[in-house]
Protein: OLC1v1023132C1
Organism: Oldenlandia corymbosa var. corymbosa
Amino acid sequence: MMEGSNGIRVEVLLAAAILCLGILVDGNSSSDDEAAVYIVTIRHPPTAHSSDAFIVKKDQVFHGPAGSSSMNTLNRTKGGSRNPRSHGSYFSRYHDALLRKALKGEKYIKLYSYHYLINGFAVLITPQQADKLSRRGEVSNVILDFSVRTATTHTPQFLGLPQGAWVQQGGSGTAGEGIVIGFIDTGIDPTHPSFSDNTAENPFPVPQHYSGICEVTPDFPSGSCNRKLVGARHFAASAITRGIFNASQDYASPFDGDGHGTHTASVAAGNNGIPVVVAGHNFGNASGMAPRSHIAIYKALYKSFGGFAADVVAAIDQAAQDGVDIISLSITPNRRPPGCATFFNPIDMALLSAVKAGIFVIQAAGNTGPSPKSVFSFSPWIFTVGAAAHDRVYGNSVVLGNNITISGVGLASGTNGTMFTLVSALDALNDSRTGNDMYIGECQDPANFNPEIVQGNLLICSYSIRFVLGLSTIKRTLETAANLSAAGVVFYMDPFVIGFQLNPTPMSLPGIIIPSPDDSKIFLQYYNSSLERDSVTKKVVKFGGVACISGGLEANFSYLAPKVMFYSARGPDPENSFPDNADILKPNLVAPGNSIWAAWSSRGTDSIEFQGENFAMMSGTSMAAPHVAGIAALIKQKFPTISPSALGSALSTTASLLDKDGSPIMAQRAYAKPDLNLSPATPFDMGSGFINATAALDPGLIFDLSYDDYTSFLCGINGSAPVFLNYTGQNCSTSTIGGADLNLPSITISNLNQSQMVQRIATNIGGNETYRVGWSAPYGVSVKVTPKRFWVASGQRQVLNVSFVALTNSTAASFGRIGLFGDHGHVVNIPLSVIVKTSYNTTNKNHSFH
């Protein structure tokens, strides 16, 4: 081993190469003889990277469980898909031949052949067989399959779509027309009115460039697809081979047994004006962001087990072949790939090829906030979306007989100002009750209670961890209360449920959940102090406490919004072995993700309280990502030839930095009592800011990137050249760049050593315009941008040189911003994030915005 600093450098390079080339990069290693699913990639480039033409007779692509379905296509004029389907057969036969040659009569099961975005296959084999494959010269990587997980009526109004972006596109009746959004999710309920094609006044043709098909199964019969829902497939081979596929819950079809996929699809592209009726209450009308866009479903996640990378890659590969314009993934890996596999993993590399094919790719940031460096979508070619609150909130309250008012949640009617007597479930037990049920206070069984005590009163029940786990439900409590003729229900929070955030919950009776344990104590103290008990039996002889419940059906719009939600994952990129190459801002921006009304599957079980309903209110970055997908469809409709990176730039540079009251956007910093732990959001919280749909349709300048730029970045990672060759079939050129040098609409420098110069190239997609440049420098850094003023013609480019000089040392990031102000009203914002590692004395020549 070499000595000294040079020796350390050599070891780092060797470690980098091993991590990049390493077999079985996922840490879930199998036992010596236990078969598992592996994703094998081949050195020959995939179809999307190759100019070779293969002439074959029959396509043999695997779409789901063997023999599980037939295929149904709509009457349509097919434009050329991005790839002749015959290529799939060539690759499939090649993969079969390789397996036969390498394993020589041994047992294995090939699940998928990938050929469009990556060249490879998924196969069920033992670790010994995986080792044999890894030794083949044709094989580049053998990676253990890894698991993944799932990560409106008012948001169109909050985003200004009816008066802004939709107007520019001709109104809601044409917004997004001709654009196909592909969803990698839990499927869809095709019977939902949000996906009907009978609502449009004008003809609703299937785009000619889309060539997908609709699987036909007993759960997804012929006719399920239409001119709105243009394609639907499912991918479950990895789960099936593991023996964990539950046909009764998961459905061997594109049908959504969970609810998540139906919800996300309708957020992006659900029909406009669909009534939202839940628990008998009307909450307005729903609409997707691009209500005339088309939906293509690629089901790769399931209720009972989540999903696996092998199935997700197959879904992405198929979506790209079918000709989708946008891919929306409200999913994240269960854990971050190690080392340079941060970027070189099968899902991200498939998505890179999708971007090369012109597809805009969006992914949820993950719900692992508010910790820093918690983001689960990290590659620069993926548009990563965090979650923010919008301005509509639901809440109700209970007013006690001592005039104390306690706030709570509950999508329920109130008692119209009438005071009712409070009766705890524990004080209304039936004398004939047997057994010792410690959870009896949850009110799950009416047989436990005396109806004469409960009738006409407000029943008090406990909300315990069992509700969080789904072992007890609000619905069963309400059924108990109705059976006992209670006037309503008040839930107090069990003190063991700490920091749990409740979505507003539908209730068919007047009801409220007090989400705060502290407020629950106040409520119970009032109740107990008002009781009179028999001194011997300790039974209540008089219930003295009274209360009324205010209604929770009317929304409140006077709310601080947007703000970054506590659960939204934060940047910068995950720490790995290559910090110098992680100079990429994540998330890219934030969008509405909290308390989102959207369509729900008729058999969806993901949220027990919304089972059987047509709509559900959900929260998460899963809900934020499809908001961006829908708005991206509007931009793609206006600029049909726009590149994926330019589309992302239009979204980013126009994002809002202020909330609806004109103050800086805030970010929640704690899981418990998040609204008491707020501070101004940084770019690591919100990326470029909060999505501004109308401005994004007219960005003025954009910052574009090509596939070659991304490859130059990947090749700049130490030890990456062999694995880059393995995935793409291309050799790295001598020209490489770091993350800070990518022409992104942001600048992130994780290690500013004295000084650094970066360039950004702006392209004018508006009219001729003169721009002036202003900036605010990060703390401890001097920034200078040249030129300070420029004129740029329509379609032309302008180079911006940005110099950074360190003034003080710092281990924490500091933030600034560059603004380009056009004389026709365009404003282009570029966030700056810098960590200074070496101080350098110089005169501070910072400029401020003007």
